[in-house]
Input
Amino acid sequence: MIAALPRRLLPEGLALPLAGLTLALSLVMLASLLLGAGEVTPTRALAVLAGGGDDEARFVVGSLRLPRTLVGAAVGLALGMAGALLQAVSRNPLAEPGLLGVSAGAAFAVALALWLGASATTLRVAVAQAGALAGCLCVLGVARLRGLGNDPIRLVLAGAAFSALLAALTSLLLLFDQRAADEIRFWVIGSLSGRRLADLLAVLPSLALALAITLLVARPLAALALGERVASGLGHRPGRVRGLVVLAVALLVGAATAIAGPIAFVGLVVPFAARALAGPDIRRTLWLCLPLGPLMVIGADILSRLLVAPSELSLGVLTALCGAPVLILVVRARRLPSL
Output
């Protein structure tokens, strides 16, 4: 199916890597259905997938593990694509939604909405996307400040300060309303536990719109990497391209944060790995982010269930363990990866 995609959509030479990553993602999703911290063993779960199994196993696989796996795939896709877009538009390999405060903006907006009494999932998604949009605008505004946007480390430090401020404000909300404190505390740690298919259905329109915008801006972004004058000479409008990218990132990060909470480093690791496999062309990077994002999030979620079974680790802890070495590698490199 991948090989049959039109040549104008799929860059040359990507069919084989995409096929390999898609196969790896399929195996990881299968493992997510078979493995867990509870008493349903892989053998019992496999019997359910074969059409049999007992009632308990069918409930665990169909009502708990399947929604969790599908939500994890959507979250990974959204954060991986958002990271690639944000890095491309800011021309900064450290521009990651979790590091720069975009996820924190979405998280604070949802926490504030929950504190004010909101509980509907659709409202939560809209609020998270509004918070992500505000955070994204702040990040790009800072990136365009003279002397700061060209320094990746200083930009990350500014983003870390912004994230810390929003985290402090979120913690402050917990002190004012004990009724909402438990729900906010459970949500802001970042997890796929207890997620339902309804959560995924609530964000599908946003994800579809964001992917359509990404398809629209992929070629102009590749031209923008050569410089604004070159992009303008090729008939593109840099300002409009940036505006569309900001909208797409807000939709993606807001949707992911609304259904799974703030999860850092996915938007850093996934584009980094995609560029290592496919080179600096943003169009090739975006294609590889499609399977790499879900692969990372679902893989980390499986480990979160198994490492301290029968309890679970926070998903954000596992993604941080994967992302911190990549962050150190990029910072210590003599030359930052070309974008």
Q: What stands out?
A: The CA atoms of residues 277 and 336 lie 16 Å apart. The chain has one domain: 69-294+319-332. The two ends are 29 Å apart (CA to CA).
